């Protein structure tokens, strides 16, 4: 069996077999922010990797790279834990010197691959540890043209795909096949998946971003966020297809997550399975109704349900919502001078 097949099997085990308990049996307890000296985890575009019993959270926050925090229970977090001055990825080790956004980390072939954006270009770096340091041996982006928010998906036949956001009369989601090295794409296979077309996702800007793809019940699901991230109408929708390249049809009932309770600016998240094998969605929201930055992190469990008149299962977020907290004794680069300013620049040049 090849190393690539080992990687594919591990990836499919992580994402396959979605079967979840009813909402009444979730077992989560809602947490209040800033309790006992603790404070909310502050990230935009959060992503969680579960590896050998430890959760690793990455996200948009630092001006000079990508932070990582760790947890045993998803509730209490420690860090920054990166091996490069608290960073898992430092700008000196990769292409680009600003705007480090939307990291996703995958354990493949005995190593860790981080897909991320820098200087409004998509990149991938590799490390021997989920704590870093993540390094590019050849410091160059995956595409010469502007693109952000790259996401990796393996199909059941082992084909790797990269989904990303293209700067094309607004922001739209595209896909391409990856080469076997997982570091470069087959540019001749590039194809648009979805673009802003539903009324709810064009309230502020023309934006579809933050793609995440999974397969369930013989359908491919492409989750994305609509509107500019600064908008209080920012939210999450999805589209379905019969294969990984599309064509994609958006769910008429979108958005599936937008302004829950008192939260605003909700979106750009990622799915992951917890230690019990249950599907979760981690995402960010505005700091408050009056303030965008620094953005806060939240987690919901999810399940696929049947909905009358819809020929495929629909994803539903389960209450209660969980608020990850950073311990009072932990230091954080997230509130360092300049970091909020750096986050505010995310996508602003094009919005």
Automatic annotation (TrEMBL):
The ranges of region (Disordered) come to: 329-351
Query: Which residues bear the site annotation Important for catalytic activity, responsible for pKa modulation of the active site Glu and correct orientation of both the proton donor and substrate?
Result: 149
The root-end lineage is: Bacteria, Pseudomonadati, Bacteroidota, Sphingobacteriia, Sphingobacteriales
Q: Where is the signal peptide?
A: 1-24
Cited InterPro entries: Glyco_hydro_43, Glyco_hydro_beta-prop_sf, Glycosyl_Hydrlase_43_Enz
Q: Kindly name one Pfam family recorded for this protein.
A: Glyco_hydro_43
The record's similarity note reads:
Belongs to the glycosyl hydrolase 43 family.
Q: Does the keyword Signal apply?
A: yes
Gene Ontology terms, MF aspect? hydrolase activity, hydrolyzing O-glycosyl compounds
SUPFAM superfamilies for the chain: Arabinanase/levansucrase/invertase
Q: Name one GO biological process term.
A: xylan catabolic process
Q: Which residues form the active site?
A: 45, 209
- Which key words tag this protein in UniProt? Carbohydrate metabolism, Glycosidase, Hydrolase, Polysaccharide degradation, Signal, Xylan degradation
Q: What is this protein called?
A: Glycosyl hydrolase family 43
Source species of the chain: Anseongella ginsenosidimutans
């Amino acid at each position: 069996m090849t190393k690539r097949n080992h990687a594919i099997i591990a990836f499919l085990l992580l994402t396959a077999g979605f079967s979840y308990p009813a909402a009444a049996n979730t077992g989560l307890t809602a947490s209040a922010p800033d309790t006992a000296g603790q404070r909310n985890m502050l990230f935009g575009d959060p992503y969680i990797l579960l590896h050998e019993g430890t959760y690793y959270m990455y996200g948009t926050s630092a001006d000079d790279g990508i932070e990582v925090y760790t947890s045993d229970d998803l509730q209490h977090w420690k860090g920054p834990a990166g091996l490069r001055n608290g960073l898992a990825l430092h700008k000196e080790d990769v292409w680009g010197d600003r705007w480090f956004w939307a990291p996703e980390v995958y354990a493949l072939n005995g190593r860790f691959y981080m897909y991320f954006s820098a200087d409004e270009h998509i990149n991938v770096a590799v490390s021997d540890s989920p704590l870093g340091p993540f390094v590019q041996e050849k410091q160059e982006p995956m595409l010469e043209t502007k693109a952000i928010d790259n996401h990796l998906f393996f199909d059941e036949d082992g084909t790797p795909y990269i989904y990303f956001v293209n700067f094309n009369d607004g922001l739209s989601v595209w896909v391409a096949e990856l080469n076997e090295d997982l570091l470069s794409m087959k540019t001749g296979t590039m194809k648009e998946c979805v673009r802003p077309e539903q009324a709810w996702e064009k309230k502020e800007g023309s934006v579809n971003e933050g793609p995440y793809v999974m397969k369930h019940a013989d359908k491919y699901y492409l989750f994305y966020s609509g509107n500019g991230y600064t908008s209080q109408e920012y939210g999450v929708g999805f589209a379905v297809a019969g294969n990984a390249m599309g064509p994609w049809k958006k769910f008429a009932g979108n958005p599936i997550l937008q302004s829950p309770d008192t939260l605003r600016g909700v979106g750009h998240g990622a799915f992951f399975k917890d230690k019990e094998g249950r599907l979760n969605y981690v995402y960010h929201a505005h700091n408050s109704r009056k303030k965008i930055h620094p953005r806060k992190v939240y987690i919901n469990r999810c399940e696929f349900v049947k909905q009358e008149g819809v020929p495929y299962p629909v994803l539903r977020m389960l209450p209660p919502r969980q608020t990850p907290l950073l311990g009072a004794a932990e230091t954080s680069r997230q509130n360092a001078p300049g970091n909020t300013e750096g986050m505010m620049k995310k996508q602003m040049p094009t919005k």
